[in-house]
DNA sequence: CACTTTCCTTGACTCGTTCAAGAGAAGCAG
DNA sequence: CTGCTTCTCTTGAACGAGTCAAGGAAAGTG
């Protein structure tokens, strides 16, 4: 295992110093939590942060996630039917594969060429700045387990 | 103006009869409401339905939207930061352009070829059944008005 | 028309998220 | 190092889209 807790903290602190944000232990812990739990939801981040800082308020985590997303240190994704999830892989506009059964999210790189689907057939006069692609399906585990879609999944899916 | 209220009702009723669902005036009204308000949210559907059926409960509308989506008469979309929205254009897996400023949603047809982006660079073993593409940007009106993104928009956007 | 099954009404409730006020700490100037 | 200013965190209440549950109403069937 390379990458100690301390190195993570240093890395997170350095990232924070490059913004105009203050370096607080809460924010460092939130950045580390998201690094350790890819595509984590807020609840997971809160639990993870509390392992090192038992007294953090949920509001501090919400605030940190918002602020860090605003300055570009985190990216927020919200697949249909899911709560907000955060990731530290930013700046490459990669896309996501979401399991309809267990909500597992996996990163996928751009599909065709380097700017896939960035040109809709007509843009209706819009100034487009991002194309977000979400692939829906079943992850290997759920496929193997023969998982069936629940009514709710079907509803929120299509 | 072609397409009277009565014709719409007949059309909606016919669509319902092709499923195993009962034809109720609430469901007919919901179908008509979604036809009349493309990409309408639930609140809009409720208001629209109450123009002809003042006494419908919000629960009846929620139930109808769910059921109609399940049987494939409606499609539900939920862009990040937006509530659920419904549309009657189904079966062609078209995509959406969303204005970051006013939340206007516009349909766009498939982009490259007929099955755009349906093949991620690696599928991580997933069985993929749908690729959902959302284009984010600014609609013509907001661009002309020089609308700036609010902090909140920026947050939920990237 | 009577009966069965599905659907709608009513009203309470959940859960993720946000709001607001005041206490606390980060960073800077001296 | 010390005090000051400003930003950040804690506390606790509130919000809103959506859901749950029980009983009454209406659609479809024979």
TrEMBL record, chains A, B:
InterPro entries the UniProt entry points to: FUR, Fur_C, WH-like_DNA-bd_sf, WH_DNA-bd_sf
Taxonomy, superkingdom: Bacteria
Pfam family, any one: FUR
Coiled-coil positions: none
Compartment(s): Cytoplasm
Main location: cytoplasm
UniProt-listed Gene3D superfamilies: 3.30.1490.190, Winged helix-like DNA-binding domain superfamily/Winged helix DNA-binding domain
Transmembrane segment boundaries: none
Keyword Repressor: yes
UniProt keyword list: Cytoplasm, DNA-binding, Iron, Metal-binding, Repressor, Transcription, Transcription regulation, Zinc
Family stated for the protein in its record: Belongs to the Fur family.
Protein's recorded name: Transcriptional regulator FurA
């Amino acid at each position: 295992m390379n990458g100690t807790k301390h190195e993570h903290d240093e890395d997170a602190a350095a990232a924070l110093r490059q913004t105009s944000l203050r370096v607080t232990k809460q924010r460092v812990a939130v950045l580390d939590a998201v690094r350790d739990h890819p595509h984590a939801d807020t609840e997971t981040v809160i639990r993870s942060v509390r392992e090192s800082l038992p007294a953090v308020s949920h509001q501090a985590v919400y605030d940190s996630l918002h602020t860090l997303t605003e300055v570009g240190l985190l990216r927020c994704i919200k697949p249909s039917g899911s709560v907000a999830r955060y990731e530290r892989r930013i700046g490459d506009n990669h896309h996501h594969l979401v399991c309809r059964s267990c909500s597992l999210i996996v990163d996928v790189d751009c599909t065709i060429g380097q700017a896939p689907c960035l040109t809709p057939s007509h843009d209706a006069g819009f100034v487009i700045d991002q194309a977000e692609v979400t692939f829906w399906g079943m992850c290997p585990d759920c496929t193997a387990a023969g998982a069936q879609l629940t009514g709710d999944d079907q509803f929120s899916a299509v």
